[in-house]
Amino acid sequence: MSVIDLAVFDMSEINEKLSGLPDRQIRALVQLLADENDEVSEAVRAKIMALGSRVVPYLHEVLSESNTTIKGEAHDMLTCLAQAAALQHFQDFSKGAVDLEAGVFLVAQVAYPDLNVEAYRERLDIMATELKKRLGQQNAPDAVIHVMNDYLFVELGFQGDIDEYSNPENSYLNRVLDRKLGIPISLSAVYLFLCRRLDLPVMALGLPGHFMVTYAWGRESRIIDPFNAGRILTRKQCISFITGLGHTWLEEFFRITPDREILARMIRNLLASYTERGEGDRVRELSQYLNILTL
Q1: CA distances (Å), 49 to each of 70, 85, 109, in order?
Q2: 123, 124, 147, 170: least CB-packed within 10 angstroms?
Q3: pLDDT band of 25, cuts 50, 70, 90
């Protein structure tokens, strides 16, 4: 069947056995992906996963073969390896203090594995630079918010997606920046990331059912709703708005929401979107991310 003796590989010692595998045997192992015996092909997939990044060049080699079966299997294995590497990266990221901007791009790479994160960070940098010019020395809440809102929601045209609210693209930051559409939490994230670049005292307000941000300057504060073109709400209006959504008001709702909680909420929104669409594979994948983040 092959130059590789499958019986040699005890799964309990798989990493040790595979670490020194010669090139010719890795190539032969990859060819076994097309084996018609399900037990053989499953064992091969497990061994390829154990090889990790070392097997990637060999999988790319067979993508040019005429055998459509092995090309398809190799493509699937490359996807699985990329997902495993991304999940490990997210696990390492989640061990320390969570940085929301880094986290949302890691989550975006679940759906967009080839995402150019630096290009999107640069886009936010450019937006922040433009805002800095427009703001000048202004730092009073109303003046800052007016400039922010005019730039984001009038000139650039960011808006809440009321037509396809549950569309997963509304929760991926790259797509929010591309489409200029989002849901309350993702539009609040854009607002927040720009304000962080500008050292403005804007923080996340994870209210139930509707995410907002708050600008706290000295004794003054403003509650801002990026989903509704950055409208400013008084404390009383905010309470009325949230209770109008059917929630019993609690004072703890006004506490500032930390980055880890924001990221977990964004993943939960994605899970709800994909569950509604019946995309079970994506639900299972993102569930792993949520479990890692909330352990």
Answers
A1: 16, 10, 20
A2: 123
A3: confident
Q: Is the pLDDT of residue 7 over 60?
A: no
Which of 94, 123, 142 represents a domain boundary (last residue)?
Answer: 94
Total domain count, the chain:
2
Q: Which of these, 272, 137, 262, 271, lies nearest to 190 by C-alpha position?
A: 262
Residue 19: the pLDDT is 55
CA angle 85, 87, 93 (to 5 degrees): 105
Same domain, 136 and 167: yes
| Judgement on whether residues 181 and 73 belong to the same structural domain of the protein | no
Predicted TM-score (pTM) of the model is 0.84
| Cβ proximity of 204 and 257 under 8 Å | yes
Structural domain boundaries, residue 108: 100-294
Report the C-alpha gap between 266 and 189 in whole angstroms: 10
Nearest residue to 175 (alpha-carbon basis) of 126, 259, 112: 112
Please check whether residue 124 is in contact with residue 189, taking contact to mean a CB–CB distance below 8 angstroms: no
Chosen domain end from 94, 126, 161:
94
Judge whether 259 lies within some domain: yes
Shared domain for 140 and 275, answered yes or no, is yes
User: Based on the domain organization, do 261 and 147 belong to the same domain?
Assistant: yes
pLDDT band at 38 (very low <50, low <70, confident <90, very high): confident
Q: Do 242 and 154 have their domain in common?
A: yes
